[in-house]
Design goal:
The chain is mainly α and 397 residues long. It has helices at residues 15-49, 53-69, 71-80, 83-100, 107-135, 140-168, 176-192, 206-214, 217-247, 252-277, 282-302, 306-320, 323-334, 340-355, 358-368, 371-395.
């Protein structure tokens, strides 16, 4: 059912693996544009719906919680059906979610839209990772780095689009290119994929999968560390433009520049970190990345000048965005081939499920204090995550 990398050349630009790499990266680009557009237009949505930051954070938490819950079923179904079936299904679900944002928005509809986007993205991303893992073995870290860097391109593009649509007062129109990209990827994957569409009965076996993945102490500690990363990523990115405007006095345009920096940095650092990890131990890279990002986030909180704050954002992104491709490649190395979709899914369900509380945490703390106080709590998460990974690597626990 799944084409092995043993039967294909591991090329990122030629042949079957090249075509699939490109179309999956294009899909990740579209998903990222849509999801990262939401924090950028969130102040406009808050004003239009007359809601608090806490309620806005709860809606984003719904998106990330739906994303988390869909991880294990997506991986399990991708193992027993086909990767293509789940990827196309995820794209269709996201088309519905982003399409709802183009109609007359109410808060309940915003929550439903966020839920659809989260479920669709969960189906798409977990199946994309397993499909790439099927096709790439020796260059797996670099393959993951290329795909995740496409997310960063999407975030940078979303920042540029937001400046235009917010100045025109038509934030809804920013999601039109997202729909075009997602529909195009569905067509290209249907055209190029060598997998057939498969729909059969599936046994989830949640208990046995959970036991298999977390029976080892090392995996339990790694999911804690990944959760620290995810709480920070979701919490900071969801409110970074709003925090820069509210607590640092940035203009909407300068806040959009600040929001774009992590994605521009990620375009470069993610494939480089993935490629580096193909030749050396992966875990020390991830631990060092979390500690470096803690230094960057501390700079954002304490710096009084815009230029220094922007430097802090760059440092934060440099450390944080070296983490995902390297850690995901490490996990795919240790999960068995017959269950890697489901095992990776249950692992992601755990850290995304808890990590989805990041926006709610920042939203509530900002109501009582401010966004910078909320970010200070996330510095502690990064320090704890880095320490856990270093300890896990040294003890092999």
């Amino acid at each position: 059912m799944h084409e092995s990398a043993e039967t294909t050349e591991e090329s990122f630009v030629r042949g079957y693996t090249g075509r699939i790499t490109i179309v999956l990266a294009l899909g990740s680009l579209g998903v990222s544009i849509g999801r990262q557009m939401l924090p950028l237009v969130l102040p406009s949505i808050i004003d239009e719906l007359s809601i608090t930051s806490a309620k806005a954070g709860m809606a984003l938490t719904v998106m990330w919680a739906a994303f988390a819950v869909s991880q294990y079923p997506a991986g399990r179904f991708a193992d027993q059906w086909s990767r293509t079936t789940i990827i196309v299904g995820g794209l269709a679900t996201m088309v519905v979610g982003f399409g709802l944002l183009l109609v007359g928005l109410t808060y309940p509809l915003f929550v439903v839209s966020a839920g659809c986007i989260g479920i669709g993205a969960g189906l798409y991303i977990i199946s994309t990772r397993t499909m790439l893992s099927d096709l790439f073995v020796e260059r797996r870290g670099q393959a993951f780095g290329i795909n995740t860097s496409a997310n960063m391109v999407g975030g940078a593009f979303a920042s540029a689009v937001s400046v235009v649509i917010l100045s025109a007062g038509v934030w809804e129109y920013g999601f039109l290119p997202v729909l075009v990209v997602l529909l195009s990827v569905s067509f290209l994957l249907h055209l190029w994929s060598q997998e057939s569409y498969v729909v059969t009965s599936v046994t989830l076996e949640l208990a046995s999968s959970t036991k298999r993945v977390f029976s080892r102490s090392r995996m339990r500690w790694l999911v804690v560390a990944y959760t620290m990363y995810m709480l920070t990523w979701q919490g900071v990115l969801s409110f970074l433009p709003t925090a820069l405007r509210a607590d640092k006095g940035f203009s909407p345009e300068l806040a959009a520049v600040g929001f774009a920096i992590p994605f521009v940095v990620g375009i470069v650092v993610m494939p480089l970190a993935g490629k580096m990890s193909d030749g050396i131990a992966r875990l020390p890279i991830t631990a060092g990345g979390l500690l470096l990002s803690a230094a960057g986030l501390t700079t954002i909180i304490l710096a009084p000048y815009p230029l220094v704050i922007l430097f802090g954002i760059m440092l934060f992104a440099l450390g944080l965005l070296s983490f995902p491709p390297v850690m995901q490649a490490f996990l795919m190395d240790v999960f068995p081939d017959t269950n890697k979709g489901g095992d990776f899914g249950i692992f992601r369900t755990m850290y995304f499920g808890i990590g989805s509380l990041g926006p709610t945490y920042v939203g509530f703390v900002s109501e009582w204090f401010n966004y910078l106080v909320a970010f200070a709590g996330l510095v502690c998460c990064l320090l704890a995550g880095g320490a856990i990974i270093f300890w896990t690597h040294l003890t092999k626990g």
